[in-house]
Amino acid sequence: MTTIAVLGAGKIGEALLSGLLDGGRDAASLLFTEKHPGRGAELSARYGVEAVSVPDAAARADVLVVAVKPQDIEPLLADLAPSLKPDTLVVSLCAGLPTSLYESRLPAGTPVVRVMPNTPMLVGKAMSAISPGAHAAEEHLALVEDLLSTVGEVARVPESQQDAVTALSGSGPAYFFYLVEAMIDAGILLGIPRDLAGRLIIQSAVGAAAMLDEGGQHPVILREAVTSPAGTTIMAIRELEKHGVRAALLAAIEAARDRSVELGKATEDR
Ligand SMILES: NC(=O)C1=CN([C@@H]2O[C@H](COP(=O)(O)OP(=O)(O)OC[C@H]3O[C@@H](n4cnc5c(N)ncnc54)[C@H](O)[C@@H]3O)[C@@H](O)[C@H]2O)C=CC1
Ligand SMILES: O=C(O)[C@@H]1CCC=N1
């Protein structure tokens, strides 16, 4: 079985390890590296996956999945480059970082695949978008697709769209959590106990998500079906429009896209 090492086991690195194990992968085929020893010991105990050094991971794994913050990439690549075996596939989960950055720091010809996943990976419902670097072939894309399809859905996109994808689905879960949080607060405002408000809103979110996912109907049709003439929903929609919620979402997602571009540029400037 292919050995996979996750370099940097923070939130998304852990989500990947946990998702792969839940998807049936053997713990012996996984490795991870973690800068903080306490965190490494905690994860090894929780998942039964071995924590190793970056050079050990490079020596033993067929696929290296980079999951450090973009700001931490340079020391990691400097540590990795001397011990990387030819043909080891490098998979980047980092926002903003182009495949060309890896190609310029790692041995010539290293295949790199850029991925933007999201945290629902923890429950097997990730949305991941993948793009090949200059030396990644169909076999590399197929391998990454196979790996990530055990933890959710996978789409192939041109690398030029990865910053936009990062703003949409990479950060996307946070927007929904924010909305749920605000709606629970509205319940508190209306005098509903917090526990009950949470149940009402979370189950509404789960139900709405299932209708979007399974029904095949456009969100506009689904919203119209809830919106009765002179009823309650249209009163709420009027307030959402008045407060510019749609425009706020467009501006927010554009700002996230711009930040992803900026994170990539910061590495080019070094
Ligand atoms: N959190 C999210 O929802 C998503 C994050 N990403 C990307 O994943 C990457 C990681 O993000 P998070 O997991 O949120 O960050 P995090 O800060 O939770 O995890 C990063 C981990 O890498 C470790 N680390 C840093 N340098 C290291 C090194 N040289 N060797 C070994 N371990 C090292 C840190 O100790 C930390 O545990 C980022 O590049 C981010 O853009 C992508 C999609 C979604
Ligand atoms: O906020 C971030 O930068 C990362 C990338 C996508 C989701 N979280």
Kindly state the number of beta strands.
8
Q: What portion of residues is helical?
A: 55-70%
Percent of residues in beta strands: 5-15%
Text of the CATH class of the largest domain? Alpha Beta
Biggest sheet record:
8 strands, mixed
Q: Treating each run of at least 4 consecutive H or I residues as one helix, how many helices? A: 12
Bound molecule types: 1,4-dihydronicotinamide adenine dinucleotide, (2S)-3,4-dihydro-2H-pyrrole-2-carboxylic acid
Rg over C-alpha atoms, rounded to the nearest angstrom: 21 Å
Structural notes for this entry:
The protein has an 8-stranded mixed β-sheet with strand order 3-2-1-4-5-6-7-8, with helices on both faces. It contains 12 helices and 8 strands. It folds into 2 domains: 4-161, Rossmann fold (3-Layer(aba) Sandwich); 172-260, ProC C-terminal domain-like (ProC C-terminal domain-like fold). The longest helix is centred in the C-terminal third of the chain and has 24 residues, at 245-268. The mean pLDDT is 96. The relative contact order is 0.10. Helix 7 (162-170) packs across helix 12. It is elongated and about 70 Å long. Strand 5, helix 5 and strand 6 (112-116) form a beta-alpha-beta unit. With 270 residues, the chain is of the alpha/beta class. Belongs to the pyrroline-5-carboxylate reductase family. Residues 3-96 form the Pyrroline-5-carboxylate reductase catalytic N-terminal domain. Pfam families: F420_oxidored, P5CR_dimer.
